[in-house]
Amino acid sequence: MTLTAPLLILALTLALGAGPASARPAGEALIVSPEGPFRTIEAALEAAQDGDLIQVYAGTYAGPLVVQRSVRLEGIDWPVIDGGGRGTVVTLTAPGIVLSGFEIRGSGIEPDRDHAGITLTAPGIRVENNRLAEVLFGIFVAQADDAVLLGNEITSKSQFEQGRRGDAIRVWYSQRPRLESNHVYAARDVVLWYSSDAVLRDNHIEGGRYGIHLMYCDRVLIESNRLQDNSVGIYTMYSTGTVLRENLIRGQRGPSGYALGFKDADDVQVQGNVIVDNRVGVYLDGTPYSPQGFARFDNNLLAFNDVGVNLQPAVRRNVFAGNTL
After folding, report:
1. pTM value?
2. Per residue in 32-84, pLDDT tens?
3. 33 and 168 co-located in one domain
4. Is 321 a domain residue?
5. Half-sphere exposure of 119 (CA within 13 A, CB side)
C-alpha cells in the first residue's frame, strides 16, 4: 500500500512520539524535588494544565507562592514552603485547587495586610492535612465559596501575645465553608463573617481567644468539636439558625470566660453539649432577638462552672429542657 504525503507525515509523527501531547503522558504527575525534574513549584506550575497533579517531595521551597491554575498540589514527606517573613506564604486563586501534605511557615507580620499561611480567593478549593506554624493568620478564606479545610494543624507567631496574633482560620464573605478535623492552638480566633451554611465539625481548638466566633452567619452547624482553655468557647452574634450539637467545651476562663455566648441571635438550638469547668456556662444577651425567634437548650450537661447560666435583662422566651446542671 502506498501512503499519501499527509498519511505518511501522520505515521512518522506517531512512530516518533513527536508533538506537545507526547511530552508528558496524560495523567502523569509533574514531580518537584531538589533533584528535579522540576526544582521549584513555580516551574511545575508553568508547565501544568488545569486538572494536573503536582507532587512535591521533601525539601524547603521559597515562598511567596501564588497558584493560578486548578491543579492538585500534593506534598510527599512534608515539604516546607517558607515565606521568609514576607507577606502571605501561599495564595490560591483558581477554582478547585487541592493543597495537601505541606508545612507552611514564615509569613509576614502585618495584621492590616492579613499576612497568612494560606489565602483562598476562588471557589471550591480544598486545603487538607497541612501543618502551619510561625504564620500570623493561618488560613484566610476570602470571598471563596465552598471551601473545605480538613485535617490541618494551625498555630500562629509564637513571639506575639494572644491579641497580637492573627486568626487561625478567618472566613470572610464565603458561603458553605466546611471546617473539619482541624487542630488549632495558640492562635487568636476561628472567626466567620458574613458566611452562611457553614459546617464546623470535629475540630480541636485550644489556647486561643475566641474558639469559634460567628458574626452575621446564618444556618451554621457546629458539632462534635472540642474546645478547651480558650478565653471564650463559642460566641454567636447577629446570626440566625445556629445549631450546636455534642460539643465538649471545657476550661474557658478568660475575663468573660463564656463557654457559649449569644448576642442578638435567633433560632438557636443547643443540644447534647458537655459544658464543664468554665467561668460561665451559657451567656444570653438579646437572644432570641426577634419576636418570632426562638432559643432551645436540650439535654446538655453543665457542671463545675462558676456560673451555670447568665441571663441578661432583655432575654425572653428561651426554653431549657432535659438539661443537667
Report:
1. 0.91
2. 999 999 999 999 999 999 999 999 999 999 999 999 999 999 999 999 999 99
3. yes
4. yes
5. 23
